[in-house]
Amino acid sequence: MSAYTARLSEDLLKLQLRAEEMMGVTPNTFTYPFGAKSDGTDTILKELGFRASLMTEAKRNVITRGDEECLFSLGRIIRPHGRSLEEILTS
Questions:
Q1: How many domains does the chain have?
Q2: The CATH number of the domain where 62 resides is what?
Q3: Could you tell me what percent of the chain has a pLDDT over 70?
Q4: CB 54 within 8 A of CB 32
Q5: Which of 2, 8, 16, 70 has the fewest CB atoms within 10 Å of its CB?
Q6: Long-range contacts of 37-46 (CB under 8 A, 24+ apart)
Q7: Kind plus residue range of the DSSP H or E element containing 77
């Protein structure tokens, strides 16, 4: 296990434990800050029990029943400050 992998795993585990402590729920979806991720990151997320991850790129997501891989690196719409979701979806 590399130092990066160990550090990331430790940080994510702390996140999960703190969320469980504060909210009574263990996160199962991870959103990459600024959409930045490294090779192997999704593997670490899966090992820690995450079931999905979100990127910051707008893209078409294809969800296929029975394909757990399709739930990782999902695209999403970033709502700029001061714009409503309705405004974004209708423009």
A1: 1
A2: 3.20.20.370
A3: 98
A4: yes
A5: 2
A6: 37/73, 38/4, 40/5, 41/8, 42/72, 42/73, 44/5, 44/8, 44/9, 44/12, 45/12, 45/72, 46/72
A7: none
